[in-house]
Amino acid sequence: MGDEKDILSSLTSELNRGTLVLGVLSQMKQPKYGYSLVQSLTDQGIETDPNTLYPLLRRLEKQGLLLSQWETSGSKPRKYYQLTLQGEQIYLALREQWIHLSEGMHRLLKEEES
Amino acid sequence: MRKEDQELVNRYIYWVIRRLPKDQKEDIKLELQELIDDMIEETGSVHAALTKLGDPALLSKKYREDSGCLIGPEYFDTYLWFLKIILLCSLIPIMIVTIFDGIRTASLEAASVGMVVNYTVSITTELFSNLLSSLLGTFGGVTLVFAIMEHQKIKIDMKKKNAADSLPWTPEDLSPLPNKKAVIERKDSIVNIVFITLFCVFLIVAPHFFAIILTVDKETINIPIFNLNDWSLIMPLFVGSLLIGLIDEIVRLVMGIYCRVVMISNLIAGTLQIILSFIILKALPLWNSELPFFFEKFPKEAKDLHILQNTQALCNVILAIVVCITILEMGVTIYKTMRYGLGKPSL
User: Fold this and answer.
1) CA B151 to chain centre
2) ipTM, interface predicted TM-score of the complex
3) In B, residues 49-88, which contact A (CB 8 Å cutoff)?
4) How far is CA B106 from CA A3, B123, B188, B221, in A?
5) Predicted local distance difference test score (pLDDT) of residue A10
6) What is the dihedral of CA B56, B60, B63, B67, to 10 degrees?
7) For residue B51, which residues of chain A lie inside 8 Å, CB to CB?
8) Which residues on adjacent β-strands are paired with residue B216?
9) A24 and A63 in contact (C-beta within 8 Å)?
10) How far is A52 from chain B (nearest CA, A)?
11) B48-58 tens-digit pLDDT
12) CB of B272 within 8 A of CB of B330?
């Protein structure tokens, strides 16, 4: 039983990890700081752990998809992230892939149901 | 925020950024401070915010993305720094020794322009061959030691992960910030590293440089102090003893604080070094057997070097110094670990 739970948990996190990048990129046309991104993803039903999201934001920045800037004029310093031009192109291509994939998956699962 | 809460946050951030590359530490520190502040506002307590963030070691691992690396980002800064020092301390002396030896031989034996050209070609070839072999040897050796440490760390991480499965992490598991006196700085190790490397290089490529040089009737006499006839037997033990010290320095550097691992490494290294020193000085024919004849032949010129005449006594003095210094260093490590370093995570 424990093994089954572990396998399910590992597969679920693999599934989430794959989709999280797309979810993050979809929210970054306007500058956002990390925790506001966690909240907006959660509000849309995508539960996201900050301890996964923050390292991911840095990785996407390293890959050139996001650009960060510290904003110090507010009550406390905040690091804002925004899509770069390359990030936007990648996001659009990924979105196309996702739509194609999800339509296919939807058909597969519907067939199996019937 | 209350003082105790800020202390808890500081501890959490410290244990996350401790093993991250230097150039990212400050940025991630600010980023985490911002995140934790936001989470405290939402959850209402530091405890709840940190519990939600989870084990700092796992968060640190996510920032490092080091799975599968031969040498991960955690050790990479130290590895590069160490490699640079070792390469500088080995390649430059090897270059100097090869050129010096080549010129000396050429000046004694080259009788014509053709022979000078031959010697120049031979010195250049030997120089490149020596540099290449020592470059490969040094690079390979240092990389191997760091790769082993990386592998061991991964093994320990995996053990910790298994243990953590049964008990979820809570902020009460956070270790306190280390005492400043427990921190091992790079500058504390640099003298030892440079000295050991230079000594090793000269023992390997130029043991004849350790010599007594006297001027007798305007003629320079050069007598090596070591027994070069049996050098292939003595040198590996001699260099091995020094390399054990070098590995101990690497352990100190990568750990960065006095802890159990540093203490155990130092105790093992110190014990082995004392045993090897005893073998080298008391059981092996370390000294040049011609030294006594040399002192008999040139008593006037060598009168200031009488300490070298009785090699038995000399061995005892050196052994006593080595044992005293090693025991002192082991004592200091034990003291600092027990006083400031225990109770911290071992890796």
Assistant:
1) 18
2) 0.84
3) 52-54, 58-59, 62-63, 65
4) 75, 9, 42, 18
5) 82
6) -130
7) none
8) B219
9) no
10) 7
11) 999 989 989 88
12) no
